[in-house]
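Entry 14. Ran structure prediction on the chain below.
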Amino acid sequence: MLIDTQGTLQVGVDLIVLGQTRSYTGVATLVVEAGIAIGKIRLYSDSIDKSKLNVTRETIGTSPQYKIDYGTSQNNLNLTTTVQTNEIIINNLNIGDTYFFQITPVDNSGNPLGTPSEITQAKI
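Output, C-alpha cells:
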C-alpha cells in the first residue's frame, strides 16, 4: 500500500471466502504523519558470491540519501552504511547467518527525515 497523503485514513476489507463476499468496515485506522516514506525493501543474494547481498528499496519521496542499518540481531543493528542510490551490494556477509536490515531517509547531515522502514531479514 502506498499512501501519498497526510492525515487519518479508515481501513475496510472485502473478503471472498468460498464464493461468499463479506465486507468489514472500521477494521483499522491509519495515522499518516509528515515525513519521507520508505517503499518496499528487496533483498537479493548474489548468484555467484553467496557472501554478497543486494539491497534495493522502492523510490518514494525526495530524500538525498538513505542510511541502512544492519546486523545479525534484530535488536542490535550495529553495522551502518549510507547511500545516495536505490541499490547497494553489501559484501563479506557470513554464509549461514541471518541478517536484519532497516532503512531510514536522512538529510545531507545524516539527520532522519522520516520514519524508518520495518526491519527486514535475510538468511545468507
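Residues 36 and 62 are 7 Å apart (CA to CA). Will compare against last week's run tomorrow.
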